[in-house]
Amino acid sequence: MLELAVKGNKWYWGWMVVLLGVIGAGFGLYLMQLKFGLGITGMSRDVSWGFYIANFTYLVGVAAGGVMVVLPYYLHDYKAYGKITILGEFLAIASIVMCLLFILVDLGQPMRALNVLLYPTTNSVLFYDAVVLNGYLFLNLVIGWNVLEAERNGVHYQSWLKPLIYISIPWAVSIHTVTAYLYCGLPGRHFWLTAILAPRFLASAFAAGPALLILLCLFIRRFTNFDPGKAQIQALAKTVAYAISINVFFLLCEVFVGFYSNIPGHMDHLKYLFVGLHGHGALVPWMWASMIFMATGIVLTVTPATRKNETSLMIACIVIVLGTWIDKGLGMISGGFVPNPMHQVNEYAPTMPEIGITLGVYAIGALVLTVLYKMAVGVKEEIHD
Amino acid sequence: MKNSRRRFLQIAGVSALGLGAKPVLNAFALGGGKGYHVASGEDALTAEQWAMVIDTRKLQTAEAVEPIIEACNKIHNIPTAIDNKNHEVKWIWEDHYHHVFPDKTNKFLDEAVEHKPFLLLCNHCENPPCCRVCPTKATFKRESDGIVLMDFHRCIGCRFCMAACPFGARSFNFRDPRPFIEANNKEFPTRMKGVVEKCNFCAERLAIGKMPACVEASNGAIAFGDLYDEHSVVRELLKENYTIRRKQTLGTEPSVYYIV
User: Fold this and answer.
1) Domains of chain B, CATH where assigned
2) Within 13 Å, how many C-alpha atoms sit on residue A195's CB side?
């Protein structure tokens, strides 16, 4: 099927060249980081995880979000999604590729990365994270590829895929649960030390993933001869509406617990993020922007008229993707490190090389996604001809 | 032809996976069993769990703690000439009471306590969260004496331990530390960029019968001994003085005690 990805018009190749350019620039910056060390980033002794891990966390969510089309199709036999499950699975593949790359670029000694397998440590959540992420990548590759190929050949997919498909559904939940456990089991990091962190991660994932999928569906319909379908997009939009509302509800639960109990350790991180602490508040405008984005997203997706109108739905999906990215990408990780265990405020901001490397990783993800979607759309166009 | 080539690639892929899994299975097969033995010298000092008591009454000024910090910096090749605060490497350092004990700070505090320096270092916890999270066992609690140690050659630099430590005791080499080492001690290894490091309770000195450098430089203000030997100097001090520890409600059981 790969041959479908090497045929394209000038826009397709132009886009690929742009991506390769960004990847090349990002790789150059990464070589710089390899030579100098992680000191070229904005990370510090106090904020020891930054932009890379934040984007990793966000993309695990996007990958898990793919299950929101797989689950209704295979478990509830919601036939309409048959058309787009492949888009969800391929989005998951591209996201996991980016997740693994973000982990790799975040390592101080990346050439030792395989130590995680050579010295498997069953009490480390990171070990399980490596297992579930690679497992999810493998599952989606095998399932996505074979189901698409069967569809192309006009036959039912192989029966041995069925158990893998069923396994992939709880597996999607596991990747984001385990990722949340990286953070929420650490004593002394009060912002993360909450049982609701994994559910909150999942809620934001099931909003962000499907919202991105809607945007991709709208794009595919506009620029190819394959229409993912109005009913499908509307069904996804309802998932987004519930998930983004639950995400904001969970956040408000955190605010209540912190401020009604009045325990400083629980309030300080939220104060830092939303009003600033000890005169430091670099993230304050971002966090409020995130709140406005997510609130707008809730209004637009919950109101039937704006959900059914695909223009306003598109706007809703854009603000939801941005809002959840700020919430999880910017606030969740550095918010947990500020103030530090000594209650000192040392702020973090990514540096230009750090942002460049991040964009490089996103460009690799976009390239993988473009190739996979080109194939998927190519097959869909073939069988509808 | 096409089919057989594809078949070949499929089989090759599965075989590669199998080969990749082999070392993992091997490592699991070894399990937690000790496949090695570390010889200890005749003069080595031993304990069930090393612990420290810092008598802050004897360390009232910055001048009093400075030689202690300096002794550690010197023998452990700490890159003290790094001027970017973000990249700082610290094994033992000083801070104010309200930063050291943020959960034990009163609004109105004894002025002497408020202004005197407190020494901070790795607590060599009995339940160390850093060892719990490390994905490669590069940081581990030595069973023989409870010291939390680092294997600088195994550390992949993921910095999970830094997120897990509730005491901010760990530093990461954000760049090559070697050009920033002021006093080069040939008897202790320097570190490379991209690995985490921290206080090791002077394991290398205990091995040859010497007390930790900070203890030696403290003029008796810091005591060091076995927490589970009721006749140890540490236990004597704990018996006679009211001591506090940092964030003990977190259950990590720090081994560094403070007399205020």
Assistant:
1) 43-259 (3.30.70.20)
2) 1
